[in-house]
Design goal:
heterodimer; A: 259 residues; mainly alpha; 13 helices; 73% helix; B: 200 residues; alpha/beta; Rossmann fold; six-stranded mixed beta sheet; 5 helices; 10 strands; globular
């Protein structure tokens, strides 16, 4: 008997019990049509779109950072990345609010440029980028670190800069890692609640006018936004799990599928 | 002309080496003698504690890897996702104009009569492609660490390669476990426990 294996599986099952119970009740005994109305699906749609956009920005902006950390050895930048993860998420929401408030010079400047975070898709996406980018970097960095650096060193010897090497040598060879890390970051963004419940409780913009992100909608239902809201919240939660699970699974699949 | 006089360390390993000369230089020593550390230090991947590296009279000691004009070729030096022809000119394209006749000359002299994706080639074929890529980029020097090891007709290849490099005025330093490989080179250095000595 491999006790380590038994112990590990038992511990993971412990993690999953609440989710399994929720799925059972949400789709079974507590199933409530109020949990899968058009409005609920609309908010899941908003969450998926905003999270996917955030993941694309993570990929574009933070792949170089992950590579820099993998090949650099910059303890300062590495610890700076942990800051957004380490503080309570609602604080990020408040921070974005202050950054973009008409009461502060930064906010006046941003508003002058037409940049508004409060209850906009932009604000939602920015909050999701801040919350998911560290996850993206932490997924990408070990992937780059595990690469044999010989080809990169060869490229640099031939005269290519680090950035050039990243773009034309490392990235074409790292698609599975990039896709996997993006999907992991996207699932993280889908699950975000704290920051977006402050900065973008709902969105007042086309094409999602009046729509709240899924986590906020579930919270509202739970808080009794409608009669029988608890059942609706459980059902909507189950629907949300069914939507986000495949993203996590596919992300995992890509991680295993080495080059 | 390469003139390297360096002290460096990698972990607990200490290097006190000297490599001087033009043409083809062989650095021979057994496993763990410091060949890789020496070549990596010359290429700029390891910090020099003391000393300097000169190529064609230029002091490159403080220059970053990509500015040195020194290419390090190892068995892993291949861009797996490229096909052979785009691989061959990859380094060349970074700064110089591609000359088709030169590419075909190098291909025929080095026995690159195959194509396809580099990642799908055998190790020996990949090494040929990497070495030809380095040559076509026309750096000041090419350092070859173990990358001759898996070649068919190894001695023949090294001789042909060295001849092409002489024509382009590129110095070659290659590592070997066998001092007998000194016969393929103009100059032989022996290395043991990080210390070099003249071999012939």
């Amino acid at each position: 008997m491999n006790w380590l294996r038994v112990l590990s599986i038992a511990a993971v099952v412990l993690l999953l019990i609440p989710i399994a119970v929720l799925l059972y009740y949400g789709l079974g005994p507590f199933r409530s049509p109020a949990g899968y109305t058009a409005a609920v699906f609309r908010s899941i749609e908003l969450s998926i779109v905003a999270s996917a956009v955030a993941a694309v920005f993570d990929l574009a902006l933070f792949t170089p950072v992950a590579y820099y950390l993998a090949r650099g050895n910059d303890a300062i930048v590495e610890s700076l990345i942990d800051i957004p993860v380490g503080i309570p998420h609602p604080i990020i929401g408040v921070a974005l609010l202050i950054l973009d408030s008409p009461l502060t010079p930064t906010g006046q400047f941003l508003l002058f440029l037409g940049i508004n975070f409060f209850n906009t898709i932009l604000g939602l996406v920015v909050a999701l980028i801040i919350m998911s980018a560290p996850i993206y970097i932490k997924a990408m960095q070990p992937y780059f670190e595990s690469r044999d650096p010989s080809a990169e060193e060869f490229a640099m010897g031939l005269g290519a800069s680090r950035l050039r090497t990243l773009v034309s040598v490392v990235l074409p060879d790292s698609m599975s890692g990039v896709i996997s890390a993006s999907l992991v970051a996207m699932s993280r963004a889908l699950g975000e609640f704290g920051s977006i419940s402050i900065i973008a409780f709902y969105v007042l913009q086309y094409p999602f006018y009046g729509v709240s992100p899924a986590s906020v909608t579930i919270f509202q239902l739970f808080n009794g936004a409608i009669p029988g809201g608890l059942y609706a919240a459980v059902t909507a939660s189950a629907a949300m799990i069914l939507v986000s699970l495949p993203i996590t699974v596919v992300g995992h699949f890509f991680r295993r599928w080495k080059r | 002309m390469i003139e390297a006089k360096i002290r460096a360390h990698s972990g607990q390993f200490h290097l006190a080496a000297e490599v001087n000369g033009s043409g083809t230089i062989c650095v021979a020593g057994k496993n763990g003698a410091g060949k890789t550390t020496l070549l990596r230090t010359m290429a700029g991947f390891l910090k020099i504690d003391e000393g300097q590296v000169l190529v064609r009279g230029q002091n490159v000691t403080r220059l970053p890897v990509e500015k040195r004009g020194i290419v390090l070729v190892t068995p892993g030096s291949a861009f797996q996702h490229l096909d052979v022809d785009s691989h061959l000119v990859w380094g060349r394209k970074l700064g110089k104009r591609i000359q088709e006749d030169q590419v075909s000359k190098v291909k025929s002299e080095l026995g690159i009569d195959f194509g396809g994706r580099v990642g799908k080639l055998s190790l020996g074929m990949r090494e040929r492609v990497s070495l030809a890529t380095a040559l076509l980029a026309e750096p000041k020097a090419i350092l070859v660490d173990e990358a001759f090891a898996s070649l068919h007709n190894r001695e023949e290849f090294i001789t042909a390669y060295a001849r092409l490099l002489v024509g382009a005025n590129i110095d070659l330093v290659f590592s070997s476990q066998e001092a007998a490989d000194g016969k393929l080179a103009d100059i032989l250095y022996l290395i043991d426990e990080g210390v070099t000595s003249a071999g012939n």
